């Protein structure tokens, strides 16, 4: 977390500043696409977004702690310990765990419903024991806690130009759309973790199932039945994006470029999957660097326009610069911008 962001957010306590900085590092390491989009937010709102996503990434890391020797029992114990820290932090505003400390501060500042965090933790705990979903309806019940509530947590930070309850269904849908996109992109990697997020009834409708997916993963061979199932899941996911789209215009104008950029970049993953021939059982599809750069540039232009409108013509908008890196583009550090 840069000093400028924390100063703008009114975070002055040194211990709390370090907690927010840890969240920012988690977000940067795990979520390159959303980390980039977050840089398009007003500077004072970025720490809160990093706290929300940093906590979510940390909990998810516990669940997915493969290769570390951590069995289900140990991961369950770590999630239980995190739950206790979370309950204490939300109740008292403090915690010995830095990520929870930042999250609790963000929840207090923005009046975020504690129930959203409880639903999220319940979904994380289910990942320890649930490895398949019989129907799409079953999967959507899971994604309420694992994804929809992330959108609902974000809404007070982003701000709206309509009553919050009017924007809430679209914010929830956007969180789900992002996660369904990840599920499609990561079919092979999830198989390696012992999980299949493609609903069993959807697979069966095309003559596929977990054994066929595993065979394809193990042999590197393609199967038209898997491709057909992946295409249907892509269509379902695009439908959720359509549910989410009206919510973009309901956000505070200065927040829209951030969310629109994430919307377009994540949607681009679906295009990349199709362009790669639905080979996600074997490899991740990647949005081309040039496309990511173009979307980022468009986001910057929208930031400039929005902030000129809100701050008045003649004042220099507060926007980050972007430079080439190993992603497509990432912002120049605030200290040199």
Largest sheet, strands/sense/barrel: 2 strands, antiparallel
> Would you report the number of β strands?
2
List the total number of helices: 15
Helix/strand order, N-terminal first: HHHHHHHHHHHHHHHEE
Share of residues in helices: 55-70%
Strand-residue proportion: under 5%
Shape from CA axes?
globular
| Biggest sheet strand line-up | 1-2
As residue ranges, the low-confidence spans are 313-337
Mean pLDDT: 85
- Category from helices, strands and their pairing: mainly alpha
Which value, in Å, is the CA radius of gyration?
20 Å
Report the span from N to C terminus: 15 Å
Task: Explain the overall architecture.
With 337 residues, the protein is mainly α. Helix content is 67%, strand content 2%. The chain has a two-stranded antiparallel ribbon with strand order 1-2. The longest helix is centred in the middle third of the chain and has 23 residues, at 136-158.
Question: What is the structure about, briefly put?
Answer:
By secondary structure, the chain is mainly alpha-helical.
């Amino acid at each position: 977390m840069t000093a400028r962001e924390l100063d703008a957010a009114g975070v002055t306590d040194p211990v709390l500043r370090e907690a927010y900085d840890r969240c920012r590092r988690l977000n940067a390491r795990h979520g390159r696409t959303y980390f980039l989009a977050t840089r398009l937010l007003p500077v004072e709102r970025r720490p809160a977004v990093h706290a929300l996503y940093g906590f979510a990434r940390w909990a998810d890391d516990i669940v997915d702690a493969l290769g570390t020797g951590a069995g289900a029992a140990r991961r369950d114990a770590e999630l239980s310990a995190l739950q206790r820290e979370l309950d204490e932090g939300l109740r008292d505003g403090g915690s010995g765990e830095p990520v929870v400390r930042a999250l609790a501060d963000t929840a207090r500042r923005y009046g975020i419903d504690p129930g959203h965090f409880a639903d999220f933790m319940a979904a994380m705990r289910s990942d320890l024991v649930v490895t398949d979903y019989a129907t799409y309806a079953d999967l959507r019940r899971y994604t309420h806690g694992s994804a929809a509530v992330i959108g609902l947590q974000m809404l007070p930070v982003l701000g709206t130009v309509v009553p919050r309850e009017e924007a809430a269904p679209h914010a929830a849908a956007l969180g789900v759309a992002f996660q369904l996109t990840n599920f499609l992109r990561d079919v092979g990697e999830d198989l390696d973790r012992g999980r299949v997020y493609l609903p069993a009834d959807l697979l069966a409708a095309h003559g596929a199932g977990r054994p066929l997916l595993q065979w394809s993963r193990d042999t590197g061979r393609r199967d038209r039945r898997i491709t057909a199932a992946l295409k249907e899941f892509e269509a379902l996911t695009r439908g959720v994006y359509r549910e989410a789209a009206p919510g973009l215009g309901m956000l505070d104008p200065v927040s829209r470029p951030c969310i629109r950029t994430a919307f377009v970049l994540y949607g681009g993953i679906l295009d990349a999957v199709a362009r790669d021939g639905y080979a996600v059982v074997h490899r991740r599809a990647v949005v081309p660097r040039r496309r990511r750069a173009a979307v980022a540039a468009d986001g910057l232009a929208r930031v400039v326009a929005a902030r000129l409108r809100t701050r008045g013509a003649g004042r220099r908008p507060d926007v980050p610069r972007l430079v080439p890196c190993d992603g497509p583009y990432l912002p120049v550090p605030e200290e040199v911008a």
